[in-house]
Amino acid sequence: MTNMLWKIIYFTSITGFSWCSSTEASPEDQNIPHIAKYFSTKGRYEEVNPYLIKNITAVNSSALQPPSPLCREIHLTAIIRHGTRYPTTKNVKKMQKLYELVQDRVSGTEEWLREILTQWTMWYTEDMDGRLVQKGVQDLKHLAVRLAKLFPSIISEEKLRGGLIKFITSSKHRCVNSTLSFQAGLAEMWAIKDVQFEYTVNDALMRFFDKCTKFIDEVDKNPLALVEMDKFIQGPEMKRVQEKIADRLNVPYPLITDDMVEAAFYLCAYEFAIKTVNSPWCRLFDEADAQVMEYKLDLKQFWKRAYGYDINSKSSCILFHDVFERLDKALNEHKSGQKVTEAVTVQVGHAETLLPLFTLLGFFKNAEPLTSSNFASQTRRSFRTSRMLPYAANFVLVLYDCGGGDFRLQPLVNEQPVIFPGLTERQDSMPLYEDVKRQYEELLKGCDFETVCELFEKNVEV
Ligand SMILES: *[C@@H]1O[C@H](CO)[C@@H](O)[C@H](O)[C@H]1NC(C)=O
Ligand SMILES: *[C@@H]1O[C@H](CO)[C@@H](O)[C@H](O)[C@H]1NC(C)=O
Ligand SMILES: *[C@@H]1O[C@H](CO)[C@@H](O)[C@H](O)[C@H]1NC(C)=O
Question: 86 and 124 in contact (C-beta within 8 Å)?
């Protein structure tokens, strides 16, 4: 057993929870950087669902029309990325280097440049190390409230009090803290003060990428795995961005390295995600530059976590099976007239948890792979991490009983209904559960984590 069960006492006062949300969008809009929708995995959830900017607890139930009014939820699984967090130590170091260069070498009269030089201070420190920020606490609290409004009969006070909502998390503090925040969102909504919630830490499930030897050896620690991204960095699009930034800062081209361009992009992204400010660093990029930066980051995710290599998605086999076993168990309990013991499962992990699973299931797949040379022809790609994996990104599966033996499975990505790849001919976002299982038959029969993650394959895996 690698699982550790943590019993925790719930305190209602983890953080203040504000129900106030601005009804006026305009003052807020000025705070949104013009490049905010290109921040890849450093992006704000609100950019993916912009109606939330006006009202962070708004839900759109009309998008979720079950095929029949008889449909009732049997089980819901939500796999959620942690909320907004501080930069990791590695990125803080890069940001420090850029800041030092700008302080030492740059002068200028433009207002935004003066602001960087005289008012902005480097407030990020290495010890922040990726921890959840206050905005991240709110991300998860608000998500909990919205999911409960969207699925009131299953994410309910009664089920929470009855212990039918189970929480599983990665051991990273940003994930544990996100789990606590999700619980706090529900508890505050229902004014629950007297209940002790539990959660289980399970890295085998939520950080499978750390346990899959073949993935670690062939991709994660293999410098050649990201050759397409490296070529793109050396290519004409990125070179042009570097030069434009050097021009804007009035420094010689060789001073602006790829790491510095990335640090500047991240500074803009972090200042926005963490503090909701439109920082002067954002002025270093125009929209075309941001699209190039986004492509570079998409290339990284594509080759490191998604369709680039088969083992990337296969490393999530353990989570894939866990999801379907739980759906089957709930369905069997329901069919035999028993109470479903685990009505809701909330699982908190990382972008690196969600992306391999999306890939295994076939979501966001384009006809052509992302490469160093096809930036221009990929402008309409569906593989766009800014839209797939903002902070608090989530994948929700809802199993319904629609009466007369008609069981359905609804997938949602970031609260929007999506269609299982391969089940598109029905144009039906709520397919029969048995059709979904037929679609993934090969994976359900195979996809054994131990086998696929072995370094030297025994030639048995499909
Ligand atoms: C936000 O949306 C929720 C759900 O749609 C609604 O109940 C609430 O009144 C809205 N709040 C504001 C301030 O518009
Ligand atoms: C809600 O969803 C419906 C159906 O998908 C869509 O037509 C409508 O525009 C959505 N409303 C909002 C406010 O997003
Ligand atoms: C969770 O995050 C809040 C806000 O950043 C922090 O004050 C608190 O110490 C964190 N709690 C845990 C358990 O890490």
Answer: yes
